[in-house]
């Protein structure tokens, strides 16, 4: 009897292992063992060389495997190459969004994270990743799942293994916040114990511990809420800081030990100064920056990520006139400060904070940065060159150069004359694969 039971058990274990083996082989076939594809030549009326700001007319890119092999007015056309003629379009590197929330959708500012399960939100996040990719975003930094913990590791890994379409991703898991801080679930019946959207850390030691835990769960970097909530008093932004410079420095050191970085949500002083002093990777929102903060950002090459798109969206989509007026005033203040920041020559990266507004529509961020004071080429360089650095893919993405990943988009018209063409992407290639013909 017992022998039979034993052998049955061994049999099921063997069957299970065989199943795993078959499953893995199947996965391997799907993701990694596709036949080597023929070289591709992309041809268009124009090609923008982002670093120099020069247009090739026409422009061609030779793509082999997942990489760019050559870029010129006319490249070699190897035998058997597939020629894709994109006509009267401009070839650009894939767009980079340095501030997204794949786990948020319109309505996020309300009760989404309370009412929706993490599995449901993960499925929606996969859809969001696809929408962003089809809009031309081939790389993104996900700035917090807002209560879905490390579920973004699944989305990133599924994209990397070729199971679902989406941009290259750097992810943070949950953001990190103080007890009772900016993103804690305040305003509910305390007896209901509504969960925070972020992971708590109330000291330097706890910051280190949370960063280690998130790293264990697969994060690529840490996102910390450094300021909030925000109020305008007599037309000037006031926002309390959350962590001291020393606490942020401890977080930056620990992230550095793990080979990762810290990005902060920081709207104003003195939180923005503490973040710059501590040497964070980027200051996101960055509505109010003192002269000293801007000096440090120039010196340490810390980009501001203005996220105008979310401010615009909130200013236009409020339920009451009072709320709309408040958001409008905040946006006006931000525009004035942005002009100061542009004159001060601080570095920028481009991030939209998409999620609360529909995924795939965030290229409006580039239009807004131009409208409020930057030149189109400077915005494209901030997006692509500074974005690639910020995401840790410098020399890999963000430019059309031999050896780089073949992340290429086509837009109608010339983005140097009209930046809004990036909102009408007509072709997307990521890693040498056409994802939007
Ligand atoms: Zn955000």
Walk me through the structure.
By secondary structure, this protein is α/β, with parallel strands linked by helices. The chain has two domains: 40-93 and 402-436, Urease, subunit C, domain 1, CATH 2.30.40.10; 95-390, Metal-dependent hydrolases (TIM Barrel, Alpha-Beta Barrel), CATH 3.20.20.140. Helix content is 37%, strand content 20%. It contains twelve helices and 21 strands. It has helices at 2-31, 112-115, 118-134, 152-160, 204-216, 245-257, 271-278, 291-300, 308-316, 321-344, 364-371, 376-390, and strands at 40-44, 46-49, 54-56, 59-64, 67-72, 82-85, 89-93, 95-100, 137-142, 168-171, 176-177, 199-200, 222-225, 231-233, 236-238, 262-266, 282-285, 304-305, 408-412, 427-430, 433-436. The strands form six sheets. It has a six-stranded mixed β-sheet, with no helix packed on it. It has a four-stranded mixed β-sheet with strand order 5-4-1-6, with no helix packed on it. A four-stranded parallel β-sheet has the order 13-16-17-18. Strand 4 and strand 5 (67-72) form a beta hairpin. Helix 5 (204-216) runs parallel beside helix 6. The radius of gyration is 23 Å and the shape is globular. The model is unreliable at 1-34 (pLDDT under 50). Bound molecules: zinc ion. Zinc ion binds at residues 99, 101, 143, 353.
